[in-house]
Amino acid sequence: MLRVLFGIFVVLLLHLPIQKNCSFVTNIVCCIFFEDKNMTSGNMVLIKTVISVYYRISFLALLLFVISAVCAQAQKEAEIWAVGSGNQFNFQSGNIVISAFTGNPNAKATICDKEGNLVLYSDGHTIWNSNNEILINGEELIKPDESFNNPPVFIPYPQKEGWYILIYEEDKLNTTAGLYNNKLYYAEINTNTYGGRGEVVSKNIKIHDNYHSGPTIAGYCNNSYYWLIIDRNDNVVSDFKRDRIYFYKIDENGVSVTPKINDEIDIGNSGNYKLSPDGDKFFFSYQTNAEQSLTHQIVDFDFTNGNLYNFRNAALDINYLVEFSADSRMCYYFLGANLVQIDAGFSDSKNTLNSAKSILTISTDTLVVFPGIDLQLAPDGKIYFLYFDIHDQKTKLGRIKYPNKGGDACGVEIDFYT
Fold first, then answer.
1. pTM to 2 decimals?
2. Torsion over CA of 185, 254, 154 and 10, rounded to 10 degrees?
3. Are 233 and 178 in contact, with CB atoms under 8 Å apart?
């Protein structure tokens, strides 16, 4: 049974900013390794590469991206990213500013108000306000000795001013009878109480369990409701014999206890879930029960009812995660040493695959064969990515300045920050 392992060596890209549209998108997915009894030499090279890079990186290893929620241009809930090692990315000026994060240096999720001012942050165990005060009932989201693979994510509570939802997990990092011992929870937070200190009104409300990958979340227009999409390891259940995709609607009543379930595809394992900023496209990777090779799909998503339709192949292979442009038209991923752009606007597999263009090639050596690590859309409309420079032996930050544009016009910039 293939297992998706997250954050073994480095915590990577954890949330997705959006702009220019009426949606809110975030996801909780890390660098993934597929581990099973038939692990190939290619898998081993990937793991060796990551281990090699891990021991030679600067604070950027934890920098990109331990981030929380992301919002439409009209709102600024994602203006501040706590990125590890006591640092932050601040987009309040319209451009990225890298500076010290004054809160707990272990913060892995943040959310701002509609003006872009920090409101809350969390390390997955505790919730603090912007004054670095622990919220009433804000400790022990999970037990101190428990861990998680996917960092927490804040979203504004639909239709409730000053209220927020924190989605977080508990993972025992083992399996029992083929079931993964992980659980996804949410907490309800009211920042209007106790003189603005705020309180966690309820916590440990179970959403989901027994999943390979972390969820992706998208919000509609004024964040009046959201969809949370996640897989479930249902192929160990004799009645199903395949994994299924679950769709949870989040509205003013919280997270729905009755998800929509898609079981149209023969899924043995899946991961790499990503909703586009418009919420109309869904990317995921999966492996059937019969085949070891991965298939990478872009699917159209009906935000009004949570249905998937029009499946098409989106990539022959990818290194890690994908990212969409702010207008949801272009999709980016690393393939080997190449940063690739595809046009997600096509409705068929042939034209989607034929649109693939390499917009950057990064130098490699025998040890570092996958130098591009991950990509993340930011509130400034640019996509930031990590890569390892074999010449300087450093992990560096690059960016795509105009990701809505096709080909070289997208403007890739490397060595933006070391």
1. 0.84
2. 30
3. yes
